[in-house]
Amino acid sequence: MVIFLKLKYRKVLVMNKDSKIYVAGHNGMVGSSIVRRLQKEGYNNIIVRSHRELDLVCQADVKYFFEKEKPEYVFLAAAKVGGIVANSEALADFLYENILIEMNVINAAFKNKCKKIEFLGSSCIYPKFAPQPIKESYLLTSELEKTNEGYALAKIAGLKYCEFLNRQYGTDYISVMPANLYGVNDNYDPKNSHVIPALMRRFYEAKIKNVRTVTCWGDGTPLREFMNVDDLARICVYLMNNYSDNEPINIGSGEEYSIREIAEKVARVVGYDGEIKWDTSKPNGTPRKLIDNSKLEKLGIKTEIDFEIGLKNSYEDFLNNVVRMER
Fold first, then answer.
1. Is the peptide bond between 131 and the residue preceding it cis, with omega within 30 degrees of 0?
2. What pLDDT digit, counting tens, does each position of 154-175 carry?
């Protein structure tokens, strides 16, 4: 049975507890959190595939999977991700692989009459010097941050493909743009991880090796908004059932900290008491990135997890998962 809710933009399909739901990227931080949230809310027909079982870069494999399984709803959280170093050194790889993943999954879902897709984007799609806080309408109004331009362009392609399918064929595909994320099941690789897990690992290793100085990139002044991945997952499930629009919707916490403040908070959580130095010869990246949550707030949704409590939970997860610590 299909249930409809009449909202401002179009009728919104609502998942039943037995709807067939495919979470692409379920082993990653975002995908695994969405799976946990769906299970917590009682959804019982969730399908997942590891990279070994299904290579999303391979169009033929993705085509076969969708023809066979025919999921009704898709959370597209799969992506090639990495921190500032990995992104800046492999712009072509990030562009190519992410575009292939997105186009393969979205197109196969469309051809097999998937009822709804939720595409997980990134706030890096917005211009480097966009007015703050960043509204969804600021997309493509000026140049991107160069250090992760390949990844950002791929994400823009994905959200635009969803939008164009909606406009041309009347589909109900939505795109969500999260703020910077952290949380359980993060990637702690020193080169490929994002800010918080990279700092967590560096401070941890400095602590156990009794290294008295840790040097970070830039001058520590850029401002960043961070959100716990479990907050994101809760909101993503809500939006799948309650949001429909061609324009993406931002998901953020509304709280921002300087990179210097974040480094100090992470060091305290880890228990590192050495000196933090800053290498100003390295790039800072975007000076400020705070996204506008007005559309989300109109739906009555906001984040719930306190930042410092979230950091403590993340550190506990880091300590209890040796495999991810040794990546």
1. no
2. 999 999 999 999 999 999 999 9
Per residue in 93-152, pLDDT tens?
999 999 999 999 999 999 999 999 999 999 999 999 999 999 999 999 999 988 889 999
Q: How far apart are CA 106 and CA 75, in angstroms?
A: 10
Cα separation of 26 and 191, whole Å? 22
**188 touches 327 (CB < 8 A):** yes
- Strands of 116-120's sheet, edge to edge? 46-47, 21-24, 73-76, 116-120, 173-178, 249-251
* Whether residue 54 has pLDDT greater than 70: yes
Per-residue pLDDT tens for 307-323? 999 999 999 999 987 54
Is there a contact between 215 and 278 (Cβ–Cβ < 8 Å)? yes
Known catalytic residues?
Answer: 151
Pick from 255, 258, 252: which is nearest to 276 by CA?
Answer: 258
pLDDT reading at 291 higher than 80: yes
Structure token digits, residue 251: 């998901």
CA-to-CA separations, 56 to 43, 98, 115, 202, 298, in angstroms, rounded: 24, 9, 20, 32, 35
Whole-prediction pTM: 0.91
CB 78 within 8 A of CB 28: yes
Angle between helices 307-319 and 195-209 (to 10 degrees): 60
Domains of the chain with CATH codes: 17-325 (3.40.50.720)
CA 194 to chain centre: 11
Distance from C-alpha of 2 to C-alpha of 131, rounded to nearest angstrom: 41
